[in-house]
Fold this sequence. Notes:
- By secondary structure, the protein is α/β, with parallel strands linked by helices.
- The protein is built from 5 helices and 5 strands.
- The two termini are about 35 Å apart.
Amino acid sequence: MAVKQWNRQxxxxxxxxxxxxxxxxxxxxxxxxxxxxxxxxxxxxxxxIDIEEMIxxxxxxxxxxxxxxxxxxxxxxxxxxxxxxxxxxxxxxxxGHLDHxxxxxxxxxxSNLSCGSSIPRENIxxxxxxxxGSITGGKLRFDVAYNRGRYSRQSMGQFCQRYIESIKxxxxxxxxxxxxxxxxxxxxxxxxxxxxxxxxNDMFN
Length: 205
């Protein structure tokens, strides 16, 4: 929604980054490991005027991605990934709830000493926009970095404002719904359209 309002794009290629610590197989025990097994994979998001349609399409598309993107490199090599040749312009990384890792004030409680920058200066992202989100202090926060050679500070300010407005619009829409809308993936199926599923629900309800 934010991208469509910002630059009129009907779809946007996004490089998703995951922590790779999901339970992929019960035989693989990662409970005694530390750090993240970062997975990076591209997706293409389509925008729609209808909020419900956009939420459902995005939800179903993300749920069809095998193992949350872990193994993308192999799938790309074998030609088994739908967006293998997509060049993403935006990188998105949601880090999850960080409150249990931080102190009450949202800061690391273990030490007041600086450990330096977490990203070296020579490590330049190939994406024009990078978004890192997390929940800290009970609030959803995003850090946005961008290529100053491509976007101005004013333009990115407009994008961020559109992003905030879009999140609020989606949240308000969801909490205003009187009933839960089930989709195909909620039933463990991925080859049935939402229209067909609605007809089946109407038939048996």
